[in-house]
Amino acid sequence: MIQEFKDFIAKGNVMDMAVGIIIGAAFTAIVTSLVGDLINPIIGVITGGIDFSNLFVNLGEGEYASLAAAREAGAPVFAYGAFITAVINFLIIAFVVFLLVKMVNRIKAAAEKPDDVAPEVPTGPSELDVLLEIRDALKK
């Protein structure tokens, strides 16, 4: 059973998937920073200073200045701004993954495509033809 597990882990697909998951996790952190630190402030300027990550509806009692304060107090909140941020993150990640897959497929297609081979130009008799002629001439 241990040998079967080793064989399973050693397969290329499993290792490729593991590398993909690790890189994907690191890439998610980059995209989260991109959305939170660059895109959301631009959207906030366009929409008049709205910070999506802090948009929420308090479902309980009391008033809270921020989503963090409401969560710290344990108030039930409908945090639709965090959802909007997550959707933006997803769309950006999906678009970048689409571009990466498209690029990899293009590279694979170029690698699999046979090179354009120049047509063979007759250059005269081959070595075998010459040897056969010599043999035939010697027989006569």
TrEMBL record:
Domain of life: Bacteria
Record field: transmembrane: 12-35, 77-101
Organism lineage: Bacteria, Pseudomonadati, Pseudomonadota, Alphaproteobacteria, Rhodobacterales
Short name of one Pfam family: MscL
Keyword Cell cycle annotated: no
Originating organism: Thioclava marina
Places the protein is found: Cell inner membrane; Cell membrane
PROSITE patterns: MSCL
Subunit structure as annotated in this protein's UniProt entry: Homopentamer.
Membrane protein topology class: Multi-pass membrane protein
HAMAP family linked to this entry: MscL
Protein name as it appears in the record: Large-conductance mechanosensitive channel
Keywords, comma-separated and alphabetical: Cell inner membrane, Cell membrane, Ion channel, Ion transport, Membrane, Transmembrane, Transmembrane helix, Transport
Family: Belongs to the MscL family.
Known role: Channel that opens in response to stretch forces in the membrane lipid bilayer. May participate in the regulation of osmotic pressure changes within the cell.
Keyword Cell membrane part of the UniProt annotation: yes
Cross-referenced InterPro entries: Mechanosensitive_channel_CS, MS_channel, MSC/AndL, MscL_channel
